[in-house]
């Protein structure tokens, strides 16, 4: 369950003043290290830092120290890495706390997925609440007021299993929060060391029940002094199949870039598998229409190849068949009367097929609104890449001042299957706006508009990316049309209050859109089609070369309206001076009735 976080609270860490603490740890000499507390006088204390090397454990030792506030609603999260082809069950946490008042008798623990190395993303499993430590050991005092230092040991009997696919290590986050035992005056800090001492990990992130932010002090990042230990074993999936194989035949995907249904809609069960033919070196995305399903990809002999929830990305390292299992959870639970759909996706569509068609305006995802929700779709990119000139989308809107809506577009590099670092934020304008009709929803009539957004300057894409479109100026409910039956790429990426404004994936649906783009032509392309054109964008004259005779050239708007007919080349040039600025579709008929179509941007 994803924890709901209210966005209107964002606090600065309290009680940051100066002080000193001496820690006697695993290092050969005693160190004097700065500590920050609500006091103006010099404080000193002595503490012991554990230093144990065990199998299936990760420990961040002390260096120069600070402390991170985890009182009241604050949570501190540290990252943990699971080796490839491994699953880890965290059974014990050990850490040190410094308290001003009261004794911490219970703690809450949450597990999170990683947000591309930028802190926690969506929550994994249920919160582990009101955990009583197996031991709280006094470990010295701090300062003239004698604030107590404790070493806390927690055992976690019901922690979720952390799993890494067979090819890469995987990072997770473990969040710690404390429950007060005295009303109104309970303060607790997690002892930490500077991040430079533990540079193999990511620095600590904190949350005040609002959003996650990276903890820093005076420009330095910190890592909690904490030890994770548990049980590690080879990656285990669920290959139990009480409901057998379905369908009985092997499924051979088209690998055209679109998600294909292996099973007829709502006919597959959990505790069941489908056989899929795979090609060596090709990337596959296996998904379920139920985003909480536990998915296992296994070889014919039952060896687990990859696991995950909702969807699994896996690159085949052999030619042959795999078994695609779905279960209700990683305990291999299944049902005989809960139906879903198993899907597979592979390959990359060319530029002309980078679109998700309308679903007759039956579905939509809220854009902005009270949830402040961002939406994005992923763009699979071929090896040759392409130029992106604009995007077409459908909005279902019940808005005041709808004519005043403006758009912004942000493109992101893809990192670990979600939007990552910023790629580009092109300036956009509304090139076309068309009223398609109305739909009745929530006792209200909504207008349906098709928008064509034109980029001021094209963006070159050479690797998979994500496109996020935001709006401003409209007041009221606005939905971006989506389609659960046509999925291109990974599905919908969204971030909102409920995800802590970290990107999460809904693999069971995709946003309706169409790219206005052009493949990047190279020598191979020209040789293949014996046809080329340039420049694009174009000012007045477009040069077209073809080994075949050109019969006719026609130019259309993107909505299909003819603007220029039966044009002829003059010395290999097409005169477009009379065209207004915009994006157009050119249709060229060659000898033998061969047709070439392409988009151009007229400056």
UniProtKB/TrEMBL annotation:
Keywords: Signal. It comes from Moheibacter sediminis. Residues 534-595 form the Secretion system C-terminal sorting domain. This is Por secretion system C-terminal sorting domain-containing protein. It comes from the Bacteria. InterPro entries: Secre_tail.
């Amino acid at each position: 369950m994803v924890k709901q976080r209210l966005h209107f609270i964002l606090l600065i860490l309290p009680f940051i003043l100066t002080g000193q603490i001496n820690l006697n740890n695993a290092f050969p000499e005693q160190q004097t290290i700065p500590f920050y507390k609500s006091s103006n006088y010099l404080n000193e204390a002595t503490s012991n830092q554990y230093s144990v090397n065990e199998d299936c454990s990760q420990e961040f030792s002390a260096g120069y120290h600070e402390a991170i506030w985890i009182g009241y609603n604050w949570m501190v999260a540290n990252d943990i890495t699971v080796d490839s082809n491994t699953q880890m069950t965290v059974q014990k946490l050990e850490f040190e706390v410094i308290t001003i008042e009261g004794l911490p008798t219970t703690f809450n623990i949450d597990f999170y997925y990683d947000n591309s190395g930028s802190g926690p993303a969506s929550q994994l499993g249920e919160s582990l609440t009101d955990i009583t430590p197996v031991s709280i050991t006094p470990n010295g005092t701090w300062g003239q007021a004698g604030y107590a230092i404790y070493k806390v040991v927690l055992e976690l009997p019901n922690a979720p299993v952390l799993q890494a696919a067979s090819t890469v290590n995987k990072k997770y986050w473990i969040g710690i929060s404390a429950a007060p035992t005295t009303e109104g005056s309970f303060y607790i800090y997690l002892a930490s060391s500077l991040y430079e001492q533990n540079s193999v990990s990511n620095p600590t992130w904190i949350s005040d029940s609002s959003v996650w932010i990276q903890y820093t002090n005076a420009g330095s990042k910190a890592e909690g002094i904490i030890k994770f230990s548990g049980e590690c074993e080879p990656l285990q999936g669920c290959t139990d199949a009480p409901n057998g194989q379905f369908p009985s035949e092997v499924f051979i995907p088209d690998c055209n870039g679109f998600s294909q249904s292996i099973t007829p809609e709502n006919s597959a069960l959990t505790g069941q598998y489908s056989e899929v033919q795979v090609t060596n070196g090709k990337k596959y995305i296996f998904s379920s229409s139920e985003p909480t399903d536990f998915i296992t990809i296994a070889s014919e002999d039952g060896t687990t190849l990859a696991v995950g929830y909702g969807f699994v990305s896996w690159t085949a390292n052999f030619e042959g068949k795999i078994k695609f299992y779905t279960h209700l959870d990683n305990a291999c639970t299944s049902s005989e009367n809960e139906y879903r759909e198993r899907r597979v996706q592979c390959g990359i569509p060319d530029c002309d097929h980078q679109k998700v068609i309308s679903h007759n305006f039956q579905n939509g995802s809220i854009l902005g609104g009270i949830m402040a929700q961002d939406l994005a779709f992923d763009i699979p990119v071929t090896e040759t890449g392409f130029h992106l000139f604009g995007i077409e989308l459908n909005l279902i809107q019940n808005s005041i001042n709808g004519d005043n809506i403006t758009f912004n577009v942000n493109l992101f590099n893809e990192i670990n299957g979600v939007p990552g670092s910023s790629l580009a934020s092109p300036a956009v304008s509304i090139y076309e706006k068309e009223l398609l009709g109305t739909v009745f929803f929530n006792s209200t009539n909504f207008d349906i508009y098709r928008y064509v957004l034109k980029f001021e300057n094209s963006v070159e894409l050479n690797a998979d990316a994500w496109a996020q479109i935001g709006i401003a100026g409209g007041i009221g409910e606005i939905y971006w049309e989506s389609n659960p039956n046509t999925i291109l790429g990974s599905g919908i990426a969204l971030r909102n209050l409920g995800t802590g404004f970290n990107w999460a994936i809904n693999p069971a649906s995709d946003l309706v859109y169409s790219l206005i783009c052009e493949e990047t032509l190279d020598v191979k392309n020209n040789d293949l089609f014996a046809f080329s054109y340039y420049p694009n964008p174009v000012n007045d004259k477009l040069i077209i070369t073809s080994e075949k005779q050109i019969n006719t050239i026609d130019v259309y708007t993107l909505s299909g309206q003819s603007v220029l007919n039966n044009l002829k080349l003059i010395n290999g040039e097409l005169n477009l001076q009379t065209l207004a600025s915009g994006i157009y579709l050119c249709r060229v008929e060659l000898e033998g009735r061969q047709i070439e179509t392409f988009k151009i941007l007229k400056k």
